[in-house]
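idk why but the lab printer keeps eating my pages so im just putting this in chat instead. protein + zinc ion:
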Amino acid sequence: MNRTGLQVGTWLIRRAHLMDPSSGVSAVQDLVVEGGRVAALAEEMPPAEAAGRFGVIEAEGLWLWPGLVDVHVHFREPGFAQKETISSGGAAAARGGYTTVVCEPNTSPPIDSPELARRLAEKAEVESPVRIYFKAAMTAGREGRWPSDIEALAKEPSVVALSDDGDPVTDPSVMQGVCRAAARAGMLLSPHCEDSPRALSEYEEGRDPGFEPGEPYESETRFIERDLALARRLGCRVHFSHVSLASSVELLRRFREEGGGAGTATFELTPHHLLLSRADFGAGELPRVTPPLRSPADRGALQAALTGGAADAVASDHAPHTPEDKARGASGLIGLETTLGLVLTYFVHTGRLSPLAAARAMSTRPAEVFGLPAGSLMVGRAADMVFIDPDERWKVRADEFASLSRNTPYEGWRLRGRAVGVMVGGRMAFAGDSFRPRLNLKQEVAGG
Ligand SMILES: [Zn+2]
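predcted complex ->
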């Protein structure tokens, strides 16, 4: 896991503004990394400590957050390596400030077995600068007909949730089987409550999803209601992907208020549903994405869910496509290299979200929901962290992305704040141009 050739694993980080939602600390501190973990925190280390075996990072003026965690990305291996690979997606994640991502299983073949997940995890260990986990398919072959081998998948350490991605399970009896097995195995479910083309044709063939389907792409709230009822009854944990409607947020709020029975429900918001609405595009062409961009009122409700703390995560739904596939109508937007800048520019710098609350939604809380060893810089935790220059002004240029794809709706946007350095397990996974002069490796080099 090393892209930049900076092999030093023992660091003294000086004068960073540490912001750690897991401990509530927001203060200028020094921090020591040894053996890939956070070894000590102090207001200021004695200068003698800096000598000898440490690499030094002069972090004055930078924010230091636990590495970002994105629980919804699409790296297209196996099957669609022309759109994104584990290597290019991992590099895009590192450039965006992420140290851990969770990949969706809509690959070809789909990730529905422990063997495939393990093979990909081994590949990621070699090829990706960031940590990669997987959602496995809820149903065999991602076909919605019967549950996958959930008991076996739950034993695979790289599998942290189950999802059929953009093809929701329309048959309620199949979904019930999935919920039952997931509850038994302690596995998180992460359904996409959207009407896919397959779902629409299944309704037409007479399948009853357990509610009356509405207009295409309007069933999100009804799907959530169905799955919440199963969670309540069967005691499973459900994390809803890319919630996009005000009515869905309201339903989730009520579920939590009522205690949720035996189950729990969490949810994520995407930057595009938080920032864009269909009204912004007038008669122009909307960016094609599922769920589609919604009304300004829906967007307002999502923003309130983020700023009020109801939303558990911001997730990019990074969905790379080639220009040819986009021209053919492929749905999805990339987001790993823009999400942090968007959240800083539109929520933190506008005073609507504190830096700690932003770090919570982009790291600590998604790590908790998915049971990932991330989201904290307390002593003893993995040295996974992002150095942020909160004031760097930059312009989004897709041709500079590490992602293989360019399908961003933010081309040319001017943003304030970005990741300048990323450490994963004590190794620098990304060091931007403005960050490199802050690295002092000479002690380590001198020591051989
Ligand atoms: Zn997705």
